Amino acid sequence: MANRTDPAAKSIRGTNPQNLVEKILRSKIYQNTYWKEQCFGLTAETLVDKAMELDHLGGTYGGNRKPTPFMCLVMKMLQIQPEKEIVIEFIKNEDYKYVRILGAFYLRLTGSDIDVYRYLEPLYNDYRKLRRKLSDGQFSLTHVDEVIDELLTTDYSCDIALPRVKKRWTLESLNSLEPRRSALEEDFEEEEEKEDNEQPVDEIEDRAYEKDYYRGRSPTRERDRDRRRDSHRYRDRDYDRDYEREHDRERGRGRDRDRDRDRERDRDRYRLRDEKDYGREREGRERERRERDRDRGRRRSHSRSRSRSRDRKEHDGGEYRKRHARSSVSPRRHGDGLEDGEPKKKKEKKEKKEKKDDGTDHPDPEIAEANKLRAALGLKPLKV
Fold first, then answer.
1. Does the global pTM surpass 0.85?
2. Residue 253: what are its φ and ψ, rounded to 5°?
3. 3 state DSSP class of 291
4. β-sheet bridge partners, residue 250
């Protein structure tokens, strides 16, 4: 019950007034000790006493983001929704500066655009010092006019997202708001009048068309104000045009960037494909080279084995010849009849064997003649 909005409260900007504060910050406020002890059962009349006790402003602070008493009182005002006259009295209060800031902050959250500019812009002339609690728990020095400028020009203050308001020149163009008049403008006009009074009367008559003393306002200043107002409009229009050009340029850059990215992707794809093809060709060439080396090695080993076998045969034949030469000694050297007879028998057997191999001793005379002829031609004998 203590955290519910007043049933008689009206919805602001189409929603519950307490929804103007984010849910996380709202739950932290509901769990805060100051909210439970000091803000329970407050009304619009008793809220003033609590506001007069404030000694600093701020949103949340510390590691667990505790809300400040200032933020708790803002939440209480959103809950009970005091009348507009009470809020205006808060703003006009010159004795207690934190009461003034509390009313200005609440009006910035709930007021209309015209009321925000109408009641907050006069506070630019208040230069009193304020203590502000930072997020780390330390205090910093600020001023009333700086806080008002933050409320009118930014979208975030004291850890709360501020509702959007229209620009001042828009309201002036719609004739919903009068042009802003500086508090020092009257002092400037008085200084100008003193300077004019000190000048001769002839010069005053010559410059009578430039000054309007019956109305108390300078027509040249009015023209300058209109010129400045038009320049603001043209400046905003130029800014919108420049923004559109920059947006189109950025969009064109994005297209070029996407096109370059596609080209690089295709180039990388083709490079990978070429590398794969080159790798395959290189592997094929390596395989062919290995096969050629293997075949060359086989031929070399075959020729080497053939040469070795030939050398071995020659070596064996030489040894055989040497042994045969040693064994077949001339009979004159030894003078042995048996040794001389043995080679003759072997020679006769060999000659008989060669004759038998020639086929000339075939019993058929025709085949024997044919074999002789074939032996003379170097052909193999007939075997029938």
1. no
2. -65, -40
3. helix
4. none
